[in-house]
């Protein structure tokens, strides 16, 4: 059973990560997941913020659980187009400047481009030792003018996604690619809803596929107020502390293959979140009973 579920999630992950859905432009992902969830739900709708709310009715106790995963990915947005046909861009979400130069990108889900930077042959010694800022980079789509860019259907405000297909690494369950954060959570929720479809849950369950998480958890806030659940669990990816550049004990005692994570506290100050003690006991007890 476990291998079957893993194969199912892996197949959904490959299909979902192939779609482009940078923050604020998640339509393709939402369409695909709506089609998947509709036959599994007693009720389903897309709210005004673009979140999918798919519900399985529960028993008479009326308890309501919200399960959420976000549909968007980090990416870029077209800021301007110069007369030579080069695109300037702004970042959406936590994009690291050091991972931009030379990256293949896709605009509007159809037009390929590459993030260019001054050739290393022409850079000074000082320039060679610095990571270019996003403002210093540009995207080349192969057009020779602004009008040629317009003919490609590209304009200011258009979404730009990274091109990085899902690939299998040597480890049996290790994959790499774009948008795993959080299409993996979406694939897990889809697997949950398939199993709830063949059962009669005592609890009313709403599966929320949310938007604009990477730019401030915006869709999740709307979904929470819209559905007004008794409790909620967000499924997302997390950092790994078992790489050579991280201290496992001091910085991040979390490693790939060690099992799922319960995030008891996150952030700080006004942005922080602390898990309710009752929820902690509930999840820990469930994990122990399941041998996780």
Structure write-up:
This protein has 292 residues and is of the alpha+beta class. It is 27% helix and 23% strand. The chain has helices at residues 2-17, 27-37, 125-128, 146-151, 180-197, 218-227, 277-290; strands spanning 43-46, 52-56, 64-70, 75-81, 86-92, 104-107, 111-116, 138-140, 159-162, 167-168, 175-176, 204-210, 231-234, 265-266, 273-274. The strands form 4 sheets. It has a 6-stranded antiparallel beta barrel with strand order 4-5-8-7-6-9. It has a 5-stranded mixed beta sheet with strand order 1-2-12-3-13, with helices on both faces. The protein has a two-stranded antiparallel ribbon with strand order 10-11. β1 and β2 form a beta hairpin. The mean pLDDT is 92.
TL;DR?
Helix content is 27%, strand content 23%. With 292 residues, the protein is an alpha+beta fold.
Task: Give the topology.
Blueprint: H1 2-17, H2 27-37, E1 43-46, E2 52-56, E3 64-70, E4 75-81, E5 86-92, E6 104-107, E7 111-116, H3 125-128, E8 138-140, H4 146-151, E9 159-162, E10 167-168, E11 175-176, H5 180-197, E12 204-210, H6 218-227, E13 231-234, E14 265-266, E15 273-274, H7 277-290
Parallel strand pairs: 3-12, 3-13
Antiparallel strand pairs: 1-2, 2-12, 4-5, 4-9, 5-8, 6-7, 6-9, 7-8, 10-11, 14-15
Helix pairs in contact: 1-5
User: Span between N and C termini?
Assistant: 15 Å
How much is the average pLDDT?
92
Order of helices and strands: HHEEEEEEEHEHEEEHEHEEEH
β-strand amount: 15-25%
Inertia-based shape = globular
Uncertain runs are none
Helix content: 25-40%
What structural category characterises the helix and strand content?
A: alpha+beta
What oligomeric state is this?
single chain
Strands ordered across the widest β-sheet: 4-5-8-7-6-9
Number of helices: 7
Largest sheet: 6 strands, antiparallel, barrel
How many β strands by DSSP? 15
Specify Rg, calculated over alpha carbons. 21 Å
